[in-house]
């Protein structure tokens, strides 16, 4: 602003051309310096955005891992419960002949109730696994944004490969299908694989 005022003053005074040229050169240099400063500030801002997005992605995958571990614990507890119920059924079967017809009928209903309870629990776990898969989609979106930002900054993003992401999705899908079919035992291995993949991504 000061330079503009000085230039205006020189024009009013009808000063010589060389003095005005010097003033214009000075203004140009200041403008170039300002542009460079703005470019540096923008580059720094983009770098900060990238770092924030990277932290966000790391946090998301850590949370995903914890949720998958909790789901695995619940699945293993369900399997333990099924084993205990089947053992009780075997023990009860040996004593079944000693019971009255009313007691036998009552035991049959309890066995069916526990079986349907286990199936319901398995369905709930399948729904939890589906939610985790949906959250994985959000994580993948964050990774895509991170890759674009890395391209803008001409740096490597070190994000997980497509094959790693596909393997993770596939193992979560296997787990969900097994739980939906009421076979929690079969879902344990894919869940463990998911957890392993997620830990590699951290």
Q: What tags apply to this protein structure?
A:
single chain, 202 residues, mainly alpha
Largest sheet: none
How widely separated are the two ends?
A: 51 Å
Order of helices and strands: HHHHH
**What class do helices, strands and sheet pairing give?**
mainly alpha
Query: Shape from CA axes?
Result: rod-shaped
What's the number of helices? 5
- Enumerate the spans where pLDDT stays under 50 for 5 or more consecutive residues: 103-109
Q: How many strand segments? A: 0
DSSP helix fraction = over 70%
Mean pLDDT: 81
Query: Any idea what the radius of gyration is?
Result: 34 Å
Provide an overview of this structure.
The protein has 202 residues and is mostly helical. It has five helices and no strands. The longest helix is centred in the N-terminal third of the chain and has 79 residues, at 17-95.
Structure described in brief:
This protein has 202 residues and is an all-alpha fold. It contains 5 helices and no strands.
Topology:
Layout (H helix, E strand, L loop, with lengths): L1 H11 L4 H79 L5 H52 L9 H19 L3 H18 L1
């Amino acid at each position: 602003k000061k330079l503009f005022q000085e230039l205006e003053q020189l024009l009013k005074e009808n000063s010589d051309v060389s003095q005005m040229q010097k003033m214009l050169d000075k203004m140009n240099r200041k403008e170039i310096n300002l542009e460079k400063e703005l470019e540096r500030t923008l580059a720094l801002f983009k770098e900060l955005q990238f770092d924030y997005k990277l932290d966000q992605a790391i946090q998301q995958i850590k949370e995903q891992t914890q949720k998958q571990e909790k789901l695995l614990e619940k699945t293993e507890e369900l399997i333990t419960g099924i084993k205990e119920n089947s053992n009780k059924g075997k023990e009860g079967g040996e004593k079944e002949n000693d019971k009255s017809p009313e007691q036998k009928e009552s035991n049959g209903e309890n066995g069916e109730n526990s079986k349907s309870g286990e199936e319901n629990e398995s369905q709930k776990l399948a729904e939890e696994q589906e939610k985790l898969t949906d959250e994985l989609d959000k994580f993948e979106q964050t990774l895509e944004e991170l890759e674009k930002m890395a391209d803008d900054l001409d740096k490597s993003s070190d994000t997980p490969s497509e094959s790693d992401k596909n393997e993770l999705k596939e193992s979560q899908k296997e787990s969900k299908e097994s739980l939906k079919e009421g076979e929690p035992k079969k879902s344990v291995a894919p869940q463990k694989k998911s957890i392993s993949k997620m830990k590699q991504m951290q």
